[in-house]
Write a structure and sequence with these properties.
15 helices; about 35% helix; single chain; three-stranded antiparallel beta sheet
């Protein structure tokens, strides 16, 4: 496991980020900025975000600090604007118009800090017919065509890929790219701006290569019928004798040849080159994999160029020899978690602190960011002398 490092040495060291607390892709984007060294201050609301996750185990809040501000209280927006004045980036994930109603929308924030990058994370975007309606990952990826192409059975329903494709790939990662590009512009030209990161936009963008293949006639608009969607018998998942699974990605001929040799397939080249015989090939591959356990097949293919790997569970993944050697997972405070990524040769991202507990860092942030409004002086009962003065 990766050793904990406490010094902020990432490439974003010195960058200040205000995150208005939310759920899903916004917190993950802010976590990525924090992993890379940014000083991320999460503005939590009294009562929490309502997600039901124990704050002490919410890994998307690692490497951050938290202050507690009630944006609906008279003094709340002013305290946030004091933070904004000292920030480089703000991240919020409200529905369009909510930040404006709370008094911390782009107009007020940019008036206070013209160099600010104001990052907005939504599913539908800031405009369009659905902008103000509720939604979740599955709906966003559904309308972009991404969900419809996932799954091995052209006649069955699509396979739901958790919320990785929409929320985090099409959402969080595009928000991070956007705010960092806008930060570069702000530092070069002294001009801040609003970044509208919509999950539907990012997810659609992710399908660019598939659209190219579709236009060129190399992709059928029907799931389970193509090279990369389970339609190809040497790019898919097969069950082993013990109920485990092996993932096969032997696309190129030389990798397929090694795969076929190790699997002991008969007439391997003839089956590969004749699409009409692909069902026969699929059944032959499936029968071979059903003859041994996952562990036995893992040993057979380990260290080869056959492009075959065991399908591991979330709890199993940290123990994979390659991932363990690279410290792809880390342990901090008793929580096993993915380590910061990507990697930098000079300014590595670090795992510095566990999840920020709501409001736990209010005093420290008030001091470090010089925002005394975060910690108003407590009401002190008058002394007897002041009563009689």
């Amino acid at each position: 496991m990766q050793t904990r490092q406490t010094e902020r040495t990432g490439p974003l060291a010195g960058v200040r980020v205000v995150e208005l607390a939310g759920i899903g892709p916004g917190p993950f984007a802010a976590m990525l900025l924090a992993d890379l060294g940014a000083d991320v201050v999460r503005v939590d609301r009294p009562g929490g975000a309502g997600l039901g996750v124990d704050p002490a185990k919410d890994l998307t809040n690692r490497n951050k600090r938290s202050v507690l501000v009630d944006l609906k209280a008279p003094e709340g927006p002013a305290a946030v604007l004091d933070l904004v004045e000292r920030a480089d980036i703000l991240v919020e994930g409200y529905r369009p118009g909510v930040a404006e109603r709370l008094g911390v929308g782009p107009e007020r924030c940019l008036a206070r800090n013209p160099r600010l990058v104001y990052g907005r994370m939504t599913g539908w975007g800031q405009d369009g017919p659905l902008a103000h309606t509720a939604g979740h990952d599955i709906g966003y990826i559904a309308v972009t065509g991404a969900l419809g192409m996932i799954g091995p059975d052209p006649d069955g329903p699509p396979t739901v890929p958790a919320n990785l494709v929409g929320d985090y790939a099409g959402g969080s990662l595009y928000l991070v790219v956007g705010v960092l590009a806008a930060l570069q512009h702000a530092r070069t030209h002294g001009e801040g701006q609003v970044v509208d990161a919509a999950i539907v936009d990012g997810t659609a963008h992710l399908t660019s290569m598939i659209h190219a293949m579709l236009a060129a006639g190399g992709w059928q608009d029907r799931r389970g019928s193509n090279l990369l969607d389970g339609g190809c018998p040497f790019y898919g998942v097969y069950e082993t004798s013990d109920g485990g699974h092996m993932a096969v990605g032997a696309l190129e001929h030389r990798f397929y040849a090694e795969f076929a040799r190790l699997l002991d397939l008969q007439d391997a080249d003839g089956l590969r080159g004749d699409l009409a015989r692909w069902p026969e090939l699929r059944e032959a591959v499936a029968a071979r994999f059903r003859s041994r356990t996952r562990a036995e097949w893992t040993e057979v293919f380990e260290g080869t160029d056959a492009c075959v790997a065991p399908v591991l569970s979330l709890r199993e993944a940290p123990g994979h020899p390659h991932l363990a050697a690279r410290a792809t997972f880390a342990e901090h405070g008793g929580l096993v978690q993915p380590a910061p990524a990507p990697r930098f040769s000079v300014t590595p991202g670090t795992l510095r602190t566990g999840p920020a507990l709501p409001g736990a860092d209010t005093a420290a942030v008030a001091r470090d960011w010089a925002v005394p409004a975060l910690c108003p002086a407590p009401d002190v009962p008058p002394t007897q002398e002041s009563k009689t003065a």
